[in-house]
Amino acid sequence: MPPIEKERPIGGVDYPRDWHEFESWFRDETACRNFLEKLRWPEGFICPSCGGSKGWRRSRGLFQCAACGHEASVTAGTIFAGTRTPLRTWFAAAWYVTNQKHGVSALGLKRVLGLGSYQTAWAMLHKLRRAMVRPGRDRLAGDVEADETYVGGHEPWAGGRHAGKKAIVAIAVEVPEERAIGRVRMARIPDVSGPAITGFIKEAVEPGSVVLTDGWRSYRRLPDAGYVHKPTSISGGGDPAHVVMPGVHRVASLLKRWLLGTHQGAVRPEHLDYYLDEFTFRFNRRRSRQRGMLFYRLLEQAVEVALLRTGT
Description:
- By secondary structure, the protein is an alpha/beta fold.
- It contains 10 helices and 8 strands.
- It has a 5-stranded mixed sheet with strand order 6-5-4-7-8, with helices on both faces. Strands 1-2-3 form a 3-stranded antiparallel sheet, with no helix packed on it.
- A hairpin with a 4-residue loop joins strand 1 (55-57) and strand 2 (62-65).
- Helix 3 (87-99) packs across helix 10.
- The protein is globular.
């Protein structure tokens, strides 16, 4: 059997630019596996067992390490592991998801791809969302607005920072000098206490950054965590919150509109984190003109994120 060779990007391009090229690139399962090989092993095959760099291609999409004899599959340890759905269908789902400006619902994906069940479509979307945010990504920096919002049904008795049964979502937004909205980070937090809020900021924002907040007492610990804290008292000032911190309030509004519009608000609290990942993925790439690049990044992270989370 011949040694595994590193393949060059097709036509010098790392991703298809439109649906016509997509169909040309990914005609069958072999073409899809070859593309995943380039994403998982860009410098050539690496044995997941011993780290060896030499091996042979075997049948059924397997590789055998020349050093230890371990057989490895390109999909092992990724979101595609053990799937009964063809890789070409997975690729089509990733293409469709990244090429729809506002995302898709499981029902919409089922109809477009002709999937056998709603459950299959939902599971595919769930796994793709899991891959939309890569652990270890760069944190926000510079001037950053931070606040919380509440996601869930209408509760007339819940007001202020009383969440009731709603989920609490912490939001951080980069604010460049021209006051345009930069990158965002968001996460569901259990409460609005100092430890919960500080923990979110430490995950989302680079130390030394200027964090702009309202006067909520839980943000007072930020200087101790290495941040420059600039609070503004909303109740004591003349401007409303959406004027003082327009970035986070704009993002919170867009998030709620997206959840209601694309998903009809039917998001369970235990799954909310994955929807926040999708919103963040889309928002931070909203100015991208190359939709094929979004497809490429999603598949790249589908391999990378799953490997990091499974420890393989």
